[in-house]
Amino acid sequence: MIIVLIGPGGVGKGTIARRLVERDPRLWLSRSWTTRAPRGGERGDEYEYVSREAFLAAVAADQFLEWAEFHGNLYGTPIPPALPGRDLLLEIEVQGAIQIRRRFPDATVLLVVAPSSSDLEERLRGRGDGDEHVARRLASAPQELAAGRAIANAEVVNDDVERAADEILSILEGIRRDPHAPASQRT
Ligand code: 5GP
Fold first, then answer.
1. What does the alpha-carbon distance between residue 13 and residue 16 come to, in Å, rounded to a whole number?
2. What's residue 128's pLDDT?
């Protein structure tokens, strides 16, 4: 099973993804490659931070399951190792999710949304991003949401990390029980 978390930057999907793998040992969280510089406050294991040259060499060698350019930086999911008995969890932006859906039509795409746009702004500022960066991210959020809604199986509001994780885990349980039921009937 492939589960893809999408949603506007700053919505908290990274925190939810980490919580999901802590709670469900069947989930295996992919570590992406990026050409963006580490952000102050990042631990340094969030991504494999690489140069643009190294990234493009990996693209040429067909080493990504999907990759995309987002706000001037490249991000990609390396082809995962064999994962017997495990489910692959990706936390990516929407162009990558569209590629995954094309490649794996059964992938479950979950759109994580903020309770309100003021909440999203507060979270982006709280990460220490500069004003210009926050403004760019907020300006692109409506398109990301619209594109996300077009492909998502279900939408989850991140009003509380634990509650959002509960909701996602119950959606995943529903899929494991009945892989062919529509996501709307699984919760
Ligand atoms: P950030 O720079 O805030 O860490 O990430 C920016 C956006 O890139 C987020 O929406 C994040 O989910 C997405 N992203 C992270 N890793 C990948 C990846 O491997 N592929 C794609 N397509 N997007 C990614």
1. 5
2. 78
Ligand 1 lined by 68 (C-beta under 6 Å): yes
Indicate whether 58 belongs to any domain. no
Q: How far is the CA of 136 from the centre of ligand 1 (A)?
A: 15
Q: What atom of ligand 1 comes closest to residue 33's alpha carbon?
A: 19
CB-based burial, 73-108: b 16+ in 10 Å, e otherwise: ebbbbeeeeeeeeebbbbbbbbbbbbbbbeeeeebb
Q: Is residue 129 lining ligand 1, measured as CB closer than 6 Å? A: no
Domain-embedded: residue 133: yes
The total number of structural domains that make up the chain: 1
Chain centroid, CA 31 distance in Å:
11
pLDDT tens for each residue of 130-166: 888 889 888 888 888 999 999 999 999 999 999 999 9
Q: Whose CA is nearest to atom 14 of ligand 1?
A: 92
Within a domain: residue 74? no
